[in-house]
Design brief:
The protein is mostly beta strands and 190 residues long. The chain is built from no helices and twelve strands.
Length: 190
Amino acid sequence: MPNPEFSGLQWAFAGTSESSLDDAGRRFSTWHHWIDSNSDDPPVDTGEMITQGNGNVLEKGNVVSPITGQRVYYEELWEEVPTENLAFGNNPRTCTVLRTEDLEKMSRGMIIRLGDYCQGILKKEGEVTVERWEYHFNDTSSNQGKWYKAATVGNDEMPCDELLGFKPPREGQQINRAGTMWDVIEVATW
């Protein structure tokens, strides 16, 4: 995801992932791109996950380049960033997933909010919009702060802001944003 000053987008996707161990004990992860900014039919995205001494995870693999169409080797370094507890008072911690799909409008999108992060991707008739929101604490001892749009690329509207309150929407609920219907497909609280 680019920073707010960045005007382009290299790659964004959303979906599910799974991890497995091979016979030698090496860990591999596969990402299933339900939506992908670079392809309507994304190739398999699998990499070997190697934990580093500092806890970061080095991902090594190969993928089809959206620029050249050729398979290329890559390495990515992942750092686990903890989510903060935004469960104030009687409000639970929450993870919420929204999804939209309209084949007639060639539209597909997904938004996920987990703790103090919310991000989404919408692809409509080949045009891609992404947003990322972050909660910034003014004072961590009092849990006071504010949501900020940390990054955005594209011009379409997404209902990320509908997920930023302390009471999540209900699973099965629909949210209309600029004529696009979003389904609340998952709500987890703890």
